[in-house]
Amino acid sequence: MLTDRFKLNASGTNLRTEVLAGITTFATMAYIIFVQPVVLAAAGMDQGAVFTTTCVVTAIATILMALLANYPVAVAPAMGHNFFFAYVVVLTMKVPWQTALGAIFLSGLIFVVTSSFGLRERIVNAVPESLKSAIAAGIGLLITLIGLEWAGLVRLDPNTFVTLGRLESKPVMVALIGLLTTIVLMARKVGGSILIGIIVAALVGIPLGIVKAPAGIIGLPPSIAPTALKLDIAGAIKQGLFAIIFIFFFLDLFDTVGSLIGISKQAGLMKDGKLPRVGRALFADAVGTVCSSLAGNTTMVSYIESTAGVAAGGRTGVTALVTAGLFVAALFFSPLVSAISGGFPVHETIQIGGAQAAHSFVLYPVTSPALIVVGSLMMRSVKEIAWEDFSEGLPAFLTIVLMPLTFSITDGMAIGFISYSLLKLVTGRGRDVHWLIYVFAALFLIRYSVPSLRG
Fold it and tell me: What is the pTM of this model?
């Protein structure tokens, strides 16, 4: 039945290969189960509920991808989008997480609606390759910065803003061991390296008192009641979060399209430079985002980690079905996940202007290596930037560096669009720029000109 339904023979694969590929994909991306609850907990959301919804919405969206597009692609909460949601929209802009979820719902709804007249493809084609690549790299640097902070490798300094952390401290030692394990395994091309690194760091952290030993391994999933259907759609509209809605839509669009292109190239799914059934794949992603916001989670995208399963031979939706099934099984390991993803509180005294001040914060040494490594992988896109062309290179550079330095994906994108439009105009190449880029640049300029729109 599966062989005929998913055309295994025509795709040059078999059931055994597809199952192994699905397991490989799960092992490679399972770190999101540990990281997502920690990230959204920073925004005030219930950590247990986020764990459950992460597993559930990942399974639902991945099953949709399998059934609608027959691709070996997993769909899960996006790294980068979750930090934008928690640290920029909620913590910096002071938007309640319920209202921010309403913005995600609306962005997902737009994603679904625009599938009928090709607007998504037009936007993708309008944005220059240099800025697409720069956005991915900038998000990677932002994620890396947060990972370094969570590890304790980078800490607050009142004079220089940031400085090297205390390398002799136990949390930093645990993070370094986890990071070293991960990068060594990745260098040797071991599947599931990130997940293994998390487990090793947790095991090292238990005897050092950094990680509490789990009370158990298997248990019933935590309730999703604290987050399910708590989104505030009306609040997102009343507060005028249209720029935020656009950013969520924009990031979702480019992340998914970029991942699909990368995965399909490796799997040999491209036909004459085009990806068959791409509309169905994008639709599965869009519906996943809508379902995610309803359950109480962030934007869903096609995971580039699916390339691990493709490398293992996955070619059809059966690979995705196996991955989805494993995320469902992961629901019953919540006690273990809760122990591993827990934070370690730190209390210290810092010097500010000659006076001492108490400073408290929380480190996540077990999950921080995953962020650092994922950030490094996202930096690969810089090779696609035409650095020799100043009008391409400078906007890309500003986009990349301003995301981590301003702690804002929005500001990095805004300065990139504005500077790109300006440089093309002053160099007499304004006609090379799609009119949508000028529209985006103008909207961003208005945002900076009106204080109430800056957030």
Answer: 0.71
